[in-house]
Design brief:
This protein has 389 residues and is an alpha/beta fold. Helices cover 42% and strands 18% of the residues. The chain has a 9-stranded mixed β-sheet with strand order 1-11-10-9-8-7-2-3-4, sandwiched between helices. It has a 3-stranded antiparallel β-sheet with strand order 12-14-13, with helices on one face. A hairpin with a 5-residue loop joins strand 13 and strand 14. Helix 11 packs antiparallel against helix 12. It starts with a strand and ends in an 11-residue tail after the last helix.
Length: 389
């Protein structure tokens, strides 16, 4: 795994697929002055992205009705003629993994751009299919920005979605230098960090850090589907944290999981073995064995997750504050920390059921916790006695 750098920004790009990722990329590029052309099989999605300031539709005037081809449907509306913009410097295929090969082939046939990349979260299988279809692999480099949200669609897009995030490129022996340079320029323009990996290594990595956690989260969230409402009213932040990513689009995630099936299946079997062993230990009352071991390994594994800016994990102290649920309250809270000269490393908010207050936990360096607690109490906020003292 290595890093690459370039300072040449793309002048004109075509974004094919105006969902969350595609529109977020378009917004980031527009903020850098890049000309962005937009296309999607759903004309309404293109209009929403264009209205949000993400760019100009790649398609122009309506033409006479005709039978649409499957390949055209893969990335653009069949009832519009392509606008005469000329080829873009780079085309970004912001489509699901299974749609990448056909979209790449069609875009190359129509000369949409000089070079191409994609943003699918699986690389090896789509790239092999692109070769089988006869795509020009010298003008294409696989890519994957490591950023997203549980929400989807152009209205959920954010220009800063990739700031500080790794963005993987998976060039092959056939990939041309121009494709790598253009994709790297795109990554830097979006504020991300380019990282070069082998496609198979990438797929195993995302199976561990993204795809399998989503399935595990969904399995836990599925337990809530039939739970009594009274039980769910007791839900705390722990349950929300574990199940947050389960709210992702099921259709999109099904395509991702199928495209990276084997590595995910292997990891799910490992997780299942741990859970079955822990369940047996609980039933038999042997919690000092398998259950204790699983909890200890969980702490150790969590401790290996990199900290801020990819650095070493740090231990922070959480200062809990009871705040009213009203406009400006959080801003005042952060202002108080700033006046005290204390940097807030992380923040968590838990709303109290049936009350118009919430519990805010401000994570700070341990040596700053007492000073922050005193500053907040002096300004009238309720900080539980004993916390951070």
């Amino acid at each position: 795994m290595s890093r690459v750098e370039t300072k040449v920004a793309p002048g004109r790009v075509a974004v094919i697929g105006t969902g969350l990722i595609g529109t977020s990329i378009a917004l980031a590029l527009r903020g850098r002055g890049t000309e962005v052309l937009l296309a999607d099989r759903d004309p309404a999605a293109v209009r929403l992205a264009a209205d949000a300031g993400a760019g100009t539709p790649l398609y122009g005037r309506p033409h006479e009705p005709r039978e649409p081809s499957v390949s055209l449907e893969s990335f653009g509306p069949a009832d519009f003629e392509p606008a005469d913009f000329g080829p873009a410097d780079l085309a970004i295929l912001a489509v699901p993994p299974g749609a990448v090969p056909a979209a790449l082939l069609e875009a190359q046939k129509r000369g949409v751009a000089r070079v191409y990349t994609d943003v699918a979260s699986v690389k090896e299988r789509p790239m092999a299919e692109a070769v089988r279809l006869g795509c020009d692999m010298t003008t294409y480099v696989g890519g994957h920005p490591m950023g997203g949200r549980e929400r989807s669609g152009p209205l959920a897009a954010q220009a800063d979605l990739f700031l500080g995030r790794p963005w993987v490129l998976c060039p092959t022996r056939d990939t041309g230098e121009e494709a790598v340079e253009a994709a790297t320029a795109l990554i830097l323009a979006c504020g991300a960090t380019p990282v070069v990996m082998d496609a198979a290594d990438h797929d195993r990595a995302v199976a561990l850090i993204s795809h399998t956690p989503h399935v595990v989260s969904a399995a836990m969230a599925a337990r809530f589907a039939g739970a009594p409402g009274g039980v769910l009213s007791l839900t705390g932040q722990g349950a929300r944290d574990v199940t947050r990513i389960a709210a992702g689009d099921p259709e999109l995630w099904l395509g991702i999981l199928c495209a990276n099936a084997r590595p995910i299946a292997d990891l799910l079997e490992e997780v299942a073995r741990d859970l079955v062993t822990a369940a047996a230990g609980l039933r038999e009352g042997e919690t000092e064995g398998a259950v204790a071991d699983l909890l200890a390994r969980g702490v150790a594994g969590h401790g290996r997750i990199p900290g801020k800016h990819g650095g070493r994990p740090r231990r922070y102290t959480a200062v809990p504050v009871l705040v009213a649920d009203r406009p400006g309250e959080l801003a005042l809270l952060f202002q108080a920390a700033g006046v005290a000269g204390i940097n807030i490393e992380d923040v968590a908010i838990e709303h109290s059921p049936g009350r118009s207050v919430g519990l805010v936990e401000l994570s700070v360096r341990p040596e700053s916790a007492q000073d922050l607690a005193r500053e907040l109490r002096a300004r009238g906020w309720s900080v539980p006695v004993g916390e951070a003292d």
